[in-house]
Predict the 3D structure of the following.
Amino acid sequence: MGLADSLLLLAADGEPPGLLPARQQMAFSLGWHIVLACFGVAFPTIIFVVHWRGIVRDDPVALGLAQRWAKVSAVLFAIGAVSGTVLSFEMGLLWPGLMGRFGDVLGLPFAFEGLSFFTEAIFLGIYLYGWGRMPPRRHALMLIPMGIAGVVGTFCVVSVNAWMNNPTGFAIRDGEVVDVNPWRAMFNDAAFLQFAHMWVAAFMVVGLTVAGVYAFGLLRGRVDAHHRMGFTVPFAFASVAAVAQPLIGHVLGMRIHDTQPAKLAAFELAQTTEAPAPLRLGGVLINGEVRWALTIPRLGSIIARNSWDAPVPGLDSVPRSQWPPVNITHLAFQSMVGIGTLLVAVAAVYWLARSRGRDLLGNRWFLRVAVITGPLAILAVESGWVATEVGRQPWTVYQVLTTVDAASESAGLWWSYIAVLVIYLGMTVGAYVILRSMARRWRAGEDDLPSPYGPPRSETVP
């Protein structure tokens, strides 16, 4: 039996042979790319703050951080360009039933995303090579269009996912998609709220990841102004985001009650509609029975419905064939919420201690916790996307197109999946080697690493 024949056996009865590899490849490539997308959204704003501080206060530490972070941003952008391009091709390759049928509906946000990408690349290049060649304030302002382009591009992509959860902007007559309104599809009812959730998450990921790098340096004895500012500025952004995120998530959760009751039931591990509904922490559904869950009365209604006794729909409110994978959805959702709560607590402890005059940057236990907050924030984002995407199953376009009908029929997608794994592994290793080399050279005193293909240095323009 050949490899292709063996892989065909992994497909369930009645499912196209391309469904499983399409799911695996999309999950892997999207989960990998989303971290880089976070840096494209949040990093320009953080860099702008330290750069502007350096100009206004004539602070060489802040200017040094901005210059270093610009180099890191360039490396991450280059790698993200590859992974983003792969994702663009995957939409048509893996899901021809979606793009072939709804390409006219989704074309507009994808077109704007492409324009945003090029705009971001242009201004990143200007900013990267503008050190010492442009007036300082004008140079710093190049970060603004760069940041806006990153935000717009991310909104466009998130709006497509929001449309899959809340399809609009078209009609179906005689099995054909007609009356297409791409603007209505792009600005669907869930687009702004879902984007806000992702935008704030990006600041948590970037802020805590960057702060964690400098916390590690502080642990290694590099107690200087460079490391202290390198921790404090991104951690401040992440702290604000960590506090805002539960509020946005609460509003988003209340909307899911009205639009996707099966997903909410899976989030809450609710088999039947309950009023008032409890909150179940942990637990799994096994043979129709919830096991190993800590049940807190009424809290489910408060969180999901903003009420003491409002009902939360159960899985019995939808046909069994339309249930999502309940345990994966539930555990992913609770992982996201649990990690987010922990990150709020870490931020609160730091700023409360600082307000009372205590310097936690000298506390090794706090620094150890700070180091792991970046990976925890990434895990929270990944868990959130798992909850969102798995919780929508069995639909690709909710109540319109099933995932089975959207997937490719080709069993050869396994080879595509293997190729993506190899390519992304190479990019991961390459990114690690490059960034590690840059860090070593900075520690050795090479403050201004050369930019590839950059013009020769000149004197600073006044």
About this structure: Residues 27-91+101-186 form one domain. Residues 19-56 form the longest helix (38 residues).
